[in-house]
Structures are given as C-alpha cells and as structure tokens.
C-alpha cells in the first residue's frame, strides 16, 4: 500500500465538508463542520489544532467512518470514502480520543483480533513487533483491565497499526497522559514518520502542534481559520506584549512612544505589543523610561491559542 508508484500526492483530500448534527435528546442541533477543504501531503506530520468543541473529532470520525458527513467529499490515500469505503478505511489507522479496551482480552489477542478484522494474513501479522515497539511486550498476555492508563493508551496506538496503514491519525493522544509517556509516544510516532507513515494529530495545545507538526491547520467553530507550514504560522505569532503598571497613572500614551503599538488599558496599564525578532525588551524599557514613565511593575504576555484566533480572524489577510 505504501508502494511509491501508487502513492498519492496527498494522504487526505477533503472538499467542502459539512457536518450538521441533528438535535437529539439533550444535544441541540450543531453545525460542527463548515465548508472544510483541506489537503494533507503524503509524508507530513500534520496538526489539526483547535479548542474543545472546534470539530476536530468530528472531522477525524468522518474519515474513520464513525460519523456520517452531511455533504462534501473526502478521499483517503486517493480513495473516495463513499465510493471505496472499505479500501479508504484500510489506508488509515485511527487512535480515538476515548480509550476503549475490552477488559477480557489480552493485548496480543486484541491485536490478532484487529488483524483478522482487517483481513491481514497470518504470515503478514506483526502483533509482537508492534507490542514490543510500544513497550508492551511484557504485558502481551496480561488482561487489559490490569494495564495502567498509559499502557492502555499505547495499546490503542498498537491496535491502529495492525494493518500497517500508510496514514496514522491520533485524536488528542496525550490528553490525560503523563509527561514520560508523552515523550515515548512521540518518539515512536517520529520513528513511524521516518519510515514513511503520514501522521495526523489533533490537539488543543499550541506547543504540542508546534513541536511535532510540519504543517498546522487551525480549526475554530467548525471552520479552518489557517492552514500553513508551521514556521509560517509561528512567524505570525512573533510578538509579545509588554504590560507596564506605571507608578503614576497615565492619561494617554506619551507622545515619544507614538511610533510603537502602545495603548493604555482600561485598568491603567501601558501595553506595548512588539515583534520579538525585531525588538529587545531592554530597548523598549529604555524608551518607556525615556518617555518619563516610572515603572511600578511589568509583565510580558505571549500569544496563546486565543490570540492566534483573534489575530487570524480579525486581521486583514497578511501578504
Ligand atoms: P473537538 O473534537 O474539536 O473537541 P467535536 O468534533 O467533538 O470537537 O465537537 C464539535 C461540536 O459538535 C461540539 O459543539 C460538540 O458538542 C458537537 N457534537 C459532537 N458530537 C455530537 C453529537 N453526536 N450530537 C450533537 N452534537 C455533537
Ligand atoms: Mg475531540
């Protein structure tokens, strides 16, 4: 399946994807995905970044065949999910957000069961290899209910890999996972990537996406608000805000600071936003002192995900 002659340019191609959940029980109607079009290049580590409720799992679950889309098209490894439901799904391994593990099977049995489900011939199965790679070799014959949370999470990853899919999708794989496991999980994911697997992960942590992904799409309220290579996205976040509490209240921004992006907040602080690659804090503080402001206190604020959304949705399109 990873044969270079048949490998498509894009691992995932989605066009005008829409999802409306109809009201049911306590859940109101929800327009969860709005006109999503996205191309995920083969061989990339692609991040789908957005806050809770943005629509990330809905997107993943449509690809996984767990949620029906309302309209639009999706192709996995070049295969349309409507026209080739089985083949397209065989091209992805999905690690879901929730841990679902049958307590009455052992890890080895679960992997063999999954391999059977995907029709992997016995001679081509690599259950032990996968369990070993994920540090579950000693637990291969233990009952799943005896595994720790971290081990169950790794078993979820193992299950997604039994059919050797060219695309691995991880939906918030580090939610509720300790730092050590997070490290080892990422090490293994990077190894898979080095061997050619396309990786897609969803997260609501900017740092996680920043560290792992070569491209990031930001989704908010069911819409893609940005999709670009990580360095380009981060360049947009190349700013901080210096917040100064003056000893004496200021009625206006001092004239000598007019050339800066400076304003007085309702709370009386002087807030100056600056490009970290261009301006040092030391020089800014000199300017502030030079303008006759006596500094009572100061903090710097770095942009977070909320700021990213604001800057992406309120700013005119950057060139
Ligand atoms: P994310 O994974 O980014 O946190 P989800 O895709 O899980 O977001 O959810 C997107 C939106 O759709 C949320 O507002 C959520 O409450 C809603 N939603 C998810 N699943 C259902 C469902 N089965 N029925 C109704 N609304 C749903
Ligand atoms: Mg989710």
Write the layout of secondary structure elements.
Blueprint (H helix, E strand, L loop, with lengths): L9 E12 L8 E12 L3 E5 L6 H8 L7 E6 L2 E2 L4 H6 L1 E4 L11 H11 L9 H7 L15 H13 L5 E5 L7 H16 L3 E6 L2 H7 L2 E6 L2 E7 H6 L3 E8 L14 E4 L5 E6 L5 H10 L4 E7 L3 H10 L5
Parallel strand pairs: 3-8, 3-9, 6-7, 7-8
Antiparallel strand pairs: 1-2, 1-4, 4-5, 9-10, 11-13, 11-14, 12-13
Bound molecules: adenosine-5'-diphosphate and magnesium ion (MG).
Features:
single chain, 319 residues, alpha/beta, Rossmann fold, Alpha-Beta Plaits, 2 domains, six-stranded mixed β-sheet, four-stranded antiparallel β-sheet, 14 strands, disordered C terminus, binds adenosine-5'-diphosphate, binds magnesium ion
Counting H and I runs of at least 4 residues, what is the number of helices?
Answer: 10
Give the CATH H-level superfamily of the largest domain: P-loop containing nucleotide triphosphate hydrolases
Mean pLDDT: 90
Shape: elongated
CATH topology of the largest domain: Rossmann fold
Beta-strand content bin = 25-35%
Largest sheet: 6 strands, mixed
Task: Give the number of domains.
Answer: 2
Please report the distance between the alpha carbons of the first and last residues: 39 Å
Say what oligomer this is.
Answer: single chain
Poorly predicted runs of 5 or more residues: 315-319
